[in-house]
Design brief:
Elements lengths: L4 E2 L12 H5 L3 E5 L3 E3 L6 H5 L11 E6 L2 E6 L1 H9 L4 E8 L6
Parallel strand pairs: 1-3, 3-5, 4-6
Antiparallel strand pairs: 2-6, 4-5
Pfam families: VapB
Organism: Jiangella alba
InterPro entries: VapB-like_prob
Amino acid sequence: MIFKRVGDGKPYPEHDTGLRAWSELPPRQIRLDELVTTKRTLNLETLLADDSTFYGDLFAHVVEWRGELYLEDGLHRALRAALQQRPVIHARVLLVPDAEA
């Protein structure tokens, strides 16, 4: 098993976090088997591209909500790590509070 679960969509509330705010979050190691994906499909061209992070953040973006870690951006990074038999990735984690709590 690579991921905890393969999801389809974002179950958490919209957080409207911009790239600047993401960049202020310190990256940390996250185990792949703790992540729930928010995408069911991946563009193979993106996975195999040498410059896939050239225009974006070097780290995956993960949203923590209701005790779950959702992989919002960086599915190709996570799969590349899995193919290289690395159990963790470095990601920025945004805590989204549960409005119902």
